[in-house]
Amino acid sequence: MSGRAAPVYNRGKYWLEWDERADGTRRSPYLTIFWYDPDARRIRSSSTSTDVEDEAIIALDRRYLADASEGPAFCPTCGHPTAQAKSYLLTDAIADYNLEWGRTRTSADTIEGRLKHVVDFLEAEDAKGEEARFGLGTTCAIACGTVFATALRAWSRTQPVLFRNGKKEVTGSRPRSPASTEASIAQLIAVLNHAANAEPPRSDKRPIYKPLPAQQVQRKRRTRIGVAELAAMLRYAAEPGKQRGSLHAFLVASICTVARPGAVVDINVAPERLQWWPGAEAIDLNPQGRTQTKKHRAILPVLPLLGEWLQAELDDYLALPIEQRPGRGFLVNYHGRGVQDVDRAWDTMLRNLQFPIGREWRSYVLRHSLATLARNRGATLWDLEGFMGHRASSQTEVYAIGEFPTAKAALQSIISEIETLAPGSLHRNDTGASSPNAERRGVKMSG
Questions:
Q1: Does 324 map to a domain?
Q2: Any idea where the Tyr recombinase domain is (predicted)?
């Protein structure tokens, strides 16, 4: 072990760094966890089996939490459980929350980004030196107070949102919205409550503040697009000879489901997902194994157009050898593999069509616009709420799946008008004809 440089990361008695010889060469290609063993009177070590710092830090956090003599939930003298917010660092609480909860969620990247904003605040405070009120040494007891939340809000308002590419290089920025700040406040509250709810508890304090109400900080989206703009988008996405298949599928699925972008890219025909199968009159936007969240994903009737696309995707899926099927079957895909979003293709489309580019024109505009068009074409509030997943499901709806007739009729009229303005652009192939496999009898889903 070298000792010439500061460790990559440390927590309690453990520290993380490269295992180096005296001449600076590495004994191992992997980052190593070190700690002093008082019984053996020597420094011990354990490989993390990774050279990626983030993964190695997680490994150290796991070891720390598994050590009863080190965890803040235990007394180092008698080993009895204790919970002292004044001795439990906020940075440690964030690390533990991410390890035990945040990284297990489908929204892990979003959670991590919101909490990184909190850590950035702590680092900015540390940089103030003697003028700092907070910093990396801030405990959960301090973070639970309104003074901390007020300071975090004030700092956050001055910090732009940065956009980075795959190389982590900053490619753009925009002013931070109040809603973005409150999202980090809400995530911080979740961290502090997680510490208090741990078994045994790690903190005896809970935050005494709440995030500001959504209606107070969210800017209402005013932009809506009409059928003519939808037709132009589909004409662009369906242009022969272009690699725009993922965008094309995204547009069609969005029109047929009025779903959030995240739910649209999650549509998959693989049987084990239990979302859709041949002949099914409904599609479950919430795949098997995914827990419903506040952004409820509904069970929707399958419009004929969507049925054609789903059947064609299933045909492609079943044509694959069984060993190649894992990870395939996504309706919105790039060379067969699912995508996280279509943001890059979306931005390119906006520029090529000379549409405005900005927050109001992100892909979410489809959901807002289609809801508006459907409402204005006769969809009742009850049907539209159920179709969009806005209405809380009753016990009756667990048994009886809604058909939402007025919403279906409104969407069918939009589809018909798009077909008139941009003939063939709604179909999966380039000819404008319906999928030749649309009526083909498919395999039945087990279960």
A1: yes
A2: 220-416
* Cα–Cα distance for residue pair 446/60, rounded to 1 Å: 43
**In Å, how far are 200, 369, 385, 415 from 375, measured between CA atoms?**
51, 10, 10, 15
For the chain, the residue count is 447
Query: Do 321 and 192 reside in the same domain of the chain?
Result: no
**CB 342, CB 363: distance < 8 Å:** yes
Which of residues 327 and 164 earns the better pLDDT score? Answer: 327
| Total domain count, the chain | 3
Encode pLDDT of 96-120 as tens digits: 999 999 888 878 888 999 999 999 9
pLDDT, tens digit, 9 for 90 and up, residues 28-76:
999 999 998 888 888 899 999 999 998 999 899 888 887 867 665 555 5
Biggest distance spanned by C-alpha atoms of the chain: 82
Mean pLDDT in residue range 219-236: 91
Whether this prediction's pTM lies above 0.85 is answered by no
112 in the same domain as 178? yes
Q: Is 312 among the domain residues?
A: yes
φ, ψ at 294 (rounded to 5°): -60, -30
CB atoms near residue 38 (< 10 Å): 8
pLDDT in tens, 355-377: 998 888 999 999 999 999 999 99
Question: Is residue 442 included in any domain, yes or no?
Answer: no
Tell me whether residue 447 is in a domain.
no
What is the signed CA dihedral for 59, 61, 133, 161, rounded to 10 degrees? 40
8 A C-beta contact, residue 290 and residue 300: no
Q: Are 115 and 187 in contact (CB under 8 A)?
A: yes
Beta strands (DSSP E) in 239-398 are 282-284, 299-301, 333-334, 337-338
Whether residues 209 and 339 share a domain: the answer is no
Domain boundary residue among 53, 70, 87? 70
C-alpha–C-alpha distance, residues 287 and 285, integer Å = 6
Per-position DSSP letters for 273-310, written without gaps between them: G-S--TT-SEEESS-TTPPP-SSPPPEEE--HHHHHHH
Q: By CB neighbour count within 10 A (0-12 exposed, 13-18 middle, 19+ buried), where does 236 fall?
A: buried
Query: What is the domain range of residue 167?
Result: 74-98+106-217
- 276 shares its domain with 385: yes
Same domain (yes/no): 166, 17: no
* Distance from C-alpha of 191 to C-alpha of 133, rounded to nearest angstrom: 21
Question: Do 387 and 293 have their domain in common?
Answer: yes
